[in-house]
Amino acid sequence: xxxxxxxxxxxxxxxxxxxxxxxxxxxxxxxxxxxxxxxxxxxxxxxxxxxxxxxxxxxxxxxxxxxxxxxxxxxxxxxxxxxxxxxxxxxxxxxxxxxxxxxxxxxxxxxxxxxxxxxxxxxxxxxxxxxxxxxxxxxxxxxxxxxxxxxxxxxxxxxxxxxxxxxxxxxxxxxxxxxxxxxxxxxxxxxxxxxxxxxxxxxxxxxxxxxxxxxxxxxxxxxxxxxxxxxxxxxxxxxxxxxxxxxxxxxxxxxxxxxxxxxxxxxxxxxxxxxxxxxxxxxxxxxxxxxxxxxxxxxxxxxxxxxxxxxxxxxxxxxxxxxxxxxxxxxxxxxxxxxxxxxxxxxxxxxxxxxxxxxxxxxxxxxxxxxxxxxxxxxxxxxxxxxxxxxxxxxxxxxxxxxxxxxxxxxxxxxxxxxxxxxxxxxxxxxxxxxxxxxxxxxxxxxxxxxxxxxxxxxxxxxxxxxxxxx
Length: 471
Hints:
The chain has helices at residues 16-44, 62-79, 84-101, 108-113, 123-138, 143-166, 177-193, 198-201, 208-234, 244-286, 296-310, 327-334, 336-344, 346-350, 380-392, 394-400, 425-441, 456-462; strands spanning 316-324, 359-364, 367-374, 411-417, 447-449, 467-468. It has 471 residues and is an alpha/beta fold. It has two domains: 16-274, no CATH class; 296-468, Alpha-Beta Plaits (2-Layer Sandwich), CATH 3.30.70.270. The protein has a six-stranded mixed beta sheet with strand order 2-3-1-4-5-6, sandwiched between helices. Helix 2 packs antiparallel against helix 3 (84-101), helix 3 (84-101) runs antiparallel to helix 5 and helix 5 runs antiparallel to helix 6.
C-alpha cells in the first residue's frame, strides 16, 4: 500500500540545477576538448586565439592539448558509465605526461615532451591539470579530498584568469586563452562529479537560499575583480614580475566566497529544520495519534488528490465505511485500554490486504474509511471478504499483546462506488453510510453494497452472500 504521508508541496524542484549539471557533464568535457584542439590548431597554423596572425604571446602546446583531451575523454567515459579501467587509465596517463613536461628542461624526459611549436605547458597549467587528475584518482575512496582538489584547481584557474585580465604574467608566463577556455570547461565538468559535496552543494540548489548564495558569490567575485582591473589598468599601478595584485584579489574573492557558502549552509540548515517542524505540525494535523492513520481532515485531502487522478485513469474508486461491531460493549467489558488496542491494530491487520492506490483512515470513533481503486466493481466482493476475515482473526494478536481472554471481534462494511466525474466524495460517502446501516441491520459482520453495481454473479462465484442496499 502507498505510504499515507502527505508531503508538503515545494515551490520548485531543489535538485533541478544539480540534475542539469550532471546531464551536462559530457557536453562540458566535449567543449573542453574542442577548445584544446582549437588552441593546438592555432599554434600549428601560427595563429592567435581569434585566428589573427601569431606574434609573441602565449599558445596551447601539444602536451597541454593532449592532457586536456585525455581528461575530457575520461569524463565523457565516466558520464556514459563506461569501463572504469578506461577512465583511470586516461587520467593516470594524462597526469604522467603533464608531470614529465613539468620537469626541468635539462632532463631528457622533459626535452622529449616539448615540441618545436610555440608555447609550452606553464606551471600554473600543470598544477591545475595535476589537481583535476588527483581529484579523479582519489574520488572513489576519499570523496572529500577529491572535492578539495577540484576546488583548488578551480581557484588556481580563476587566479590565472584574474592575472590575465590585469595583464600580469606569472613566473611561468601567461596561460594561452584557448588553454584557459578549455580548462574552464574541464574544471566545470570535473566539479559536477563533486556536486554533492555538502559544503558547496548549496551553490547549486534551485532554492531561494541557493539563489542568494550564488548572487553573493557573484558580487563578491565581480566587484574585487573590477576594482583590481581599475587600479592596474586605469590608475596606473606598477606591474611586477609576480602578479601580486591578482593573488590578493583572488584571496579576497576566496574569503568572500567561503563566507557566502558558510552563510548559505547555515541558512539552508535553518530552512531544513523549519521545514521539518512544518511537516511535523502538518502530520499532527492530519494524522490520528492512536492508530497512526489519516484522520478525517487528512483523508479529505487525500480523497481530493485521488479524485483528480481518477479522472485521468480508467479505474473505479470505491468508498468503504467500516464500523467495529459492538465496540461500546468491548470498552464497557474489557476497558478502554483494550478498546484502544483494538483500534491501534486495525492498521497492521488491514494493510496486507490493501494495494497501491488504496487508503485507510480513521473516520471517527470506531469507524474507518477505506478508499479502494479497482479495475472494475466486480473486484470489490473479494477484497471486502478478505478485510472482513482479517477482522475475525484479531483475537490472537490481542492475546499476544497481553490481553487475557480477548473479545471476539467483527466489523460491518458499507460500500459505494464513485459515480460520474462531477460527483463529490461526500455523496459517495453518504451512500456508503446508508449501506453500512443496512449491513448492521442485517446482523453485522458483513459487507453491504449500494444498489446497481451488478455484483451478484461475482459474489456467487466466490460463494458469498451478497447484501445490497435498497436505497
